[in-house]
Amino acid sequence: MASAVLPAGLAVLATVLSMTAGIATAAEDGAPAVLWQAEKGSSPDPAAQGWEARHDKPQAAVARAAGTGDAPLWRIEDDDDQGGEGLYYTRELSAEVLNLAAEQGFRLEWDVRIPESTGGVTRAISTEVCLAGDGRKPFRFGVSLGRNGAELAASLYTGSRGVAEAGRAVKSPEGLHRWTLLFDPATELVNLQLDGQPLLAAKFDHIDRGLPLVFGSRSTGTGVSEWKQLAFQAGLAEGTKLVEPAAPPHQVDVFTGGEDDYFAYRIPSLITAPDGSLLAICEGRKSSLDDLGNNDLVLKRSTDRGRTWGPMQIIYDEGDKVTIGNPTPVIDRSTGTIWLVFGRNVTDALVMSSTDNGQTWSKPRNITPDIKHPKWEFLGIGPGIGIQLTHGPHRGRMLIPAYHRFSFNKRDPSTSCVFYSDDHGKTWQRGGDAAEMMNECQIVETSRNGKPVVLLNARNHWARSGGRPDLNGVRMVSVSTDGGETFGEPVFDKTLIEPTCQASVLRIDQAAAAEGNAASLPSPVLLFANPASTGR
Fold this sequence. Notes:
By secondary structure, the protein is mainly β. About 5% of the residues lie in helices and about 45% in strands. The chain is elongated and about 80 Å long.
């Protein structure tokens, strides 16, 4: 996190610097000065409040009052239905304000409603700030907005680092939403917030000239927007903190085929131990890539967040003729114990545990009679990770994803399922089945209508086992409202394409969720990862 703090005295200039453009500096309460607002009882037209209307297209887009008498808005309809259209509003900033913003940063806020999907970001819904005072290099900030269904999206050209883009699904995409643009010249950081939450962070060095302050439709694209207000603050308020952009990805080869006397390594699982160390567990395949063969469980540990990894540890090996695989760990947060569930010869489920963050492990215990139906021939564990429920009546329950078939034939239908423990791993029992044609799967605790649910996300086998290639290429999802004891009808999630392979899904907790309220789970962010393709 980077912090931009005003020198003593600047933050109290709230209304002192009211210049020809009517702009205030950082207010005593940290709030920016409202420069335009659609208010009850007065015209919402920005031109009636000192803004100049312009356009760069052959004709102006339609602009009119919208909303209600008690909550008026100003609507700009850039639909290009009769050729190129555009309409934006601009006003000047004084040299003093521009200099202050260039030296101490700024905060720009606007409230806008995007009533129709745009298919992506568009300059037809945009804002712009250009800082070019006293011979300084002009910094030009242009934010374009858009909507795709429930997702609101934005893009910002940052200069030498190109375009930064981000989007977020919101509960009420039809409603008004507040956008906030922050810039700190000391660190060259720019942040864009949506409804007070960080959406985009980047380094900024875009040097270009433009109009000082703009909102509306600029030159390209089509879109409908309804604006409520726009506010600007020259000089960041004391204590304002900007978020650093995410570090670029880097690659570390944890397991490499041919090393440590193993032909190959497959089916990895990654989990964070209670002490913060990372445990990477996978199958060490002795002599081939075959799923069935002399496969062992191996582990490596990192104590520096994945930058470096220690020596490999063989944590379970039964010899030449036994297949050990599909490691699926889960952590009991109340005891600190790591439970590692895995398969043996694709017929049995074994479990062992560690109470010292994965340094040593107990002897395996066979739990097959407790979790496997007598008619199941094939049993596959996970692969991936298990979860422990943190909310609702089954709080503390540990869940392991799995899948089964009534034969060993890979082409026969498979069914995703779960099993669980309610007594800290002492005993395990069979949970609910999802549906046929659902194969390897992962589970995540999320919420529906404010209530905690378990979402099962599975590999789709309709083409391979069901003779329906038209149903393939997307993930299958099923939801449980009783902690994994039963699952509802599956749905095909067309937003999650796949080439028929295993995937990962994780939950990122918001601050409220981290409190662990047992009754409800705020809507978390889910991360899904797999190859972005429908074919291998």
